[in-house]
Structures are given as C-alpha cells and as structure tokens.
C-alpha cells in the first residue's frame, strides 16, 4: 500500500511540475495533453522527475531509469523536453537544455545496449 501511495505522490509531483511550465490558457493545451497521454504513461514518475532534474538542473541520472526512457522512445523524450524548454522562463537556455536532452538520450541508449 505504501508503494502505491509513493507512486501516486510522485505522479502528482510530475503533474505539478508540468503544470508550472504550462500557461493556464495555452493554445498548445491539446498538444500537451496528447504528449502527456501518449508519452508519460511509458515512464515511471520517479524516472520522469529524474530526467527532468538532469536536463533542467544538476540532477544525477539514475541508470535504472534509462530503460524507462528508452522504452518511452526518442520522439516522446525529444518532444516532452522541447515542450518544457519552450516555456518563457526557460527559453533563454533552450539550446543548453536540448543538448543535455540529447546527451541523456545517448547515454541511456548506450546503457540499454549493454544490458
């Protein structure tokens, strides 16, 4: 039961982080919903938070999350990170975030091939 509670809490945190970057009356709202519905269901909330922390902060990648990320797929990973990086508060460093996104993807693919 505690495990389910921690998953629900982590999912709530992911949704809250995403909402913080999404304007309330966004034209892209339908696009965002599609991304979340098709992509975020393929990765655990813990790993989604970890990838976001690595790309947008100074987080350390949890290697066990690489499997989830590769399973999510490159298109989903690219689109989700790009969507977040396009937020007005982050767009000034978008190039840096997109490079980190690509570095995380390459690292995870190399780990997945050796596993």
From TrEMBL:
InterPro entries per the UniProt record, alphabetical: Prolamin-like
Cleavable signal peptide: 1-26
UniProt entry tagged with the keyword Zinc-finger: no
Protein keywords: Signal
Domain Prolamin-like span(s) in chain numbering: 38-109
Pfam family, one: Prolamin_like
Alphabetical list of PANTHER family matching this protein: BIFUNCTIONAL INHIBITOR/LIPID-TRANSFER PROTEIN/SEED STORAGE 2S ALBUMIN SUPERFAMILY PROTEIN-RELATED, BIFUNCTIONAL INHIBITOR_LIPID-TRANSFER PROTEIN_SEED STORAGE 2S ALBUMIN SUPERFAMILY PROTEIN-RELATED
Listed name of the protein: Prolamin-like domain-containing protein
């Amino acid at each position: 039961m505690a495990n389910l509670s921690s998953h629900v809490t982590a999912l709530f945190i992911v949704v809250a982080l995403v909402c913080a970057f999404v304007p309330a009356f966004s034209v892209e709202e339908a696009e965002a919903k599609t991304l979340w519905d098709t992509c975020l269901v393929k990765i655990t909330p813990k790993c989604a938070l970890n990838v976001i922390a690595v790309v947008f902060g100074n987080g350390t990648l949890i290697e066990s999350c690489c499997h989830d990320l590769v399973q999510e797929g490159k298109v989903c990973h690219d689109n989700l990170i790009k969507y977040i990086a396009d937020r007005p508060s982050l767009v000034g460093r978008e190039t840096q975030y997109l490079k980190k996104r690509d570095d995380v993807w390459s690292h995870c693919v190399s780990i997945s091939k050796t596993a």
